[in-house]
Design a protein that fits this description.
The protein is an alpha/beta fold. 31% of the residues lie in helices and 20% in strands. The protein has a seven-stranded mixed β-sheet with strand order 3-2-1-4-5-7-6, sandwiched between helices.
């Protein structure tokens, strides 16, 4: 069943016996829909803040018969620890998160030390994080944040599925920065750093 744009009704919903992966901020769902079609034995859970995008993805998934894809509307930082028990996720996808360019909005940036540690707790040993962005400074800071949280960076490899934005960039020549990380499954300890992971600066692309 495809969940509409509502919060889950209970802590730790039953997602079934198979592997479960999450995408945070799927936008209009271009990547998620193709990925779900490729991974029919996997449950793909999307967390999106915009109701219109939730409804759009839901309709597109229904037309394609993708019963393994579900959509939940809300703030991922609040929903993740309610939706998934520690060590239950098989993977996480964070693609092209909003850079939040204005200084007063930096606190809204998705990838920071607290978020990285949260994913360390929720991901199974050996589970992977798929991170993509078109902002060089975001990429550099996020890579360091994932590493500080104890993730292991994996060798670069072509992605299984491209997002809509990546297909467009392949035509225009806009660079995309990608990295994958593995959760080693060791004890999760606080990051001993003064970095927040949010305070990077870069030139906004026109």
């Amino acid at each position: 069943m495809i969940v509409g744009c509502v919060e889950p009704g209970s802590v730790f919903p039953d997602w079934g016996d198979g592997p479960v992966e999450v995408e945070i901020g799927p936008g209009r769902g271009g990547f998620a829909l193709d990925y779900a079609a490729l991974k029919l034995r996997m449950r793909i859970i999307l967390i999106e803040t915009r109701r219109a995008d939730c409804e759009l993805i839901r309709a597109r998934a229904a037309r394609r018969g993708l019963a393994n894809l579900e959509v939940v509307q809300g703030d991922a930082r609040l929903l993740l620890p309610r939706m998934f028990a520690p060590g239950s996720l098989s993977g996480a996808h964070i693609q092209f998160p909003d850079p939040w360019w204005k200084t007063r909005h930096h606190k809204r940036r998705m990838v920071d030390v607290e978020f990285a540690l949260l994913l360390r707790r929720l991901l199974k040993p050996g589970a992977r994080v798929d991170f993509r962005t078109d902002v060089p400074a975001y990429f550099r800071e996020a890579v360091q944040t994932w590493l500080d949280a104890g993730f292991t960076r994996l060798p670069d490899a072509p992605p299984e599925v491209l997002s809509t934005r990546e297909r467009r960039y392949a035509i225009t020549g806009q660079p995309v920065f990608r990295a994958s990380f593995e959760n080693p499954g060791e004890d999760v300890r606080p990051i001993k750093s003064d970095r927040t992971g949010r305070d990077w600066r870069d030139h906004r692309r026109k």
